[in-house]
């Protein structure tokens, strides 16, 4: 989006504010579908956790996407946004049997990732189609917190437990209609995908009733101009061919499913903050903005690098700044960044603020969560109001003391 448009949005809606570009989301969705256009049945299930605003979900619904959900609340949000239950896959980790049964009752595709719940669910509901999440034991992902397919990870059913898994399926006579893996986020090397996919194909051969194979997600997006990213087009070419060959071997046309979050929404998002204080110390110049890890935690959690530009002074002379927040703990967004000269009240735009940014925001320090705006059809639409003091007090109970 143009800096001037973002600046106007900050003026109209105040700061801090999240802004999402609908066109960029649509572009990424089309890019992924065309990369896999040689596959007869392709299903993209947008990972709701990345950015769960109901207007964003409606945009995905309108594009023909399905949804990947991880909680019963995400399922409910998806239904509220107009998705049909059969367009939703529910892939929780470590939830109760009760929650899984609730999701199944709503009619969504259940994906189970542990043998204990699989056995209990299969015994009680042998007719309900179930997908199984496999852990292929592949180390992949840009950070240990987002590498979830390795041997020490809590996710998925180990490939070494396939014999026990098959025994449970046989004993309960349950219907396994899909198999799934998700090995991590920010995976650059497509060979890692292809290698893990072979493990999934091998596993698939054990099940005769499959309708789909879900390859999860984890595509790496660029964080700055010229940055490396997953080569989606090359992956599409190679995996589609392998998938089509597998379907022939398997004897049935299966659906190839993905559940991308970051790839679809990361680059579409901007986080706009206002500079409260420019503070020169003996060693550095801090630009302190009206935000902190209560609104954007990824740099502190994963060391993620969000490009920051001063949209109030884009042509200014570049200087080095540490961009920090107002939280009462160290909340460094960026260290030693070259940014055009910053004055107090300038608006800084953080890029790649679409995925896992607002959805991880909190009220820490009793601050309000920011507003969200969708830039759609050349117009700024408020899609979430900034919180107020009432929201902070909401659900709190002041007892007699
Ligand atoms: C099961 C599952 N599927 C899909 C995703 C989306 O991954 P990404 O945002 O890297 O595309 C995640 C992310 O954590 C996940 O846990």
UniProtKB/TrEMBL annotation:
Keywords: Amino-acid biosynthesis, Decarboxylase, Lyase, Lysine biosynthesis, Pyridoxal phosphate. It comes from the Bacteria. The active site is at residue 328. Residues 18-354 form the Orn/DAP/Arg decarboxylase 2 C-terminal domain. It catalyses: meso-2,6-diaminopimelate + H(+) = L-lysine + CO2. InterPro entries: Ala_racemase/Decarboxylase_C, DAP_deCOOHase_LysA, De-COase2_C, De-COase2_N, Orn/DAP/Arg_de-COase, PLP-binding_barrel. Substrate binds at residues 298, 302, 329, 356. One of its GO terms (biological process) is lysine biosynthetic process via diaminopimelate. Residues 24-266 form the Orn/DAP/Arg decarboxylase 2 N-terminal domain. Pathway: Amino-acid biosynthesis; L-lysine biosynthesis via DAP pathway; L-lysine from DL-2,6-diaminopimelate: step 1/1. Pyridoxal 5'-phosphate binds at residues 218, 356. Its EC number is 4.1.1.20. NCBIfam families: lysA (TIGR01048). Homodimer. Specifically catalyzes the decarboxylation of meso-diaminopimelate (meso-DAP) to L-lysine. This is Diaminopimelate decarboxylase. It comes from Subsaximicrobium wynnwilliamsii. The lineage of its organism: Bacteria, Pseudomonadati, Bacteroidota, Flavobacteriia, Flavobacteriales.
